[in-house]
Description:
Elements: E1 11-14, H1 25-34, H2 38-47, H3 49-53, H4 58-68, H5 75-89, H6 94-105, E2 110-114, H7 118-126, E3 135-138, H8 139-142, H9 149-159, E4 166-170, H10 173-182, E5 185-188, H11 192-201
Parallel strand pairs: 1-2, 1-4, 2-3, 4-5
Helix pairs in contact: 1-2, 1-5, 2-4, 4-5, 5-7
Amino acid sequence: MERSQNESSTMVVWDLGGVLAPSGRALGALAAALDVPESDLAGPYWAYRDAYDLGVSPDEYWQRVARDLGRRLNEAWVDRLDRIDTECWSVLGPEAAGLLGRLADHGIPLGVLSNAPGSLAKAIRRASWSGLFSTLVFSSDLGLMKPDPLVYRSADERLGRAPSDVVFFDDRRENVEAARAHGWRAHRWTGADAAAAVLAQEGVLGG
């Protein structure tokens, strides 16, 4: 992939949930819609999430969740739950949005690598803020999930970068460790201020 002379060779790549989009919002909204305790929903919501992130359809995922709750869902309910879920996970946190804006103003190329179902991937690509990113890569696109080493290799091809040219932020330690093993300059996300300090140390962002 050719780059303009003014474009940095380093790309900063981000996880979505727990990094760009705060965690916790979806469960509360979904539990309220279903009129069940959030603690009852959490188990099935996460139990089937890996399969959903790998490409299972929204209907299959939400029917599995509902079955564990002793519920049956019609098509309208599946659509409603999927809409709530995607809306909650596709809103940028304000601190992350501010940092992304700073990087974009400096002409730093940005990417996303996230475990996410197809419906969420579609919503992200439609979101106004997705224009900040040159490349968006999701597990549902690849049929692979972090921390599988093949995910990072596949992402390299889509990002158009050598591993050493990728700075990566993820909130899960195992994903960071796998990315480092692949050769990415990976760091655990603990907040926008800490990430800005890391980016300054990496020579990506000035003070």
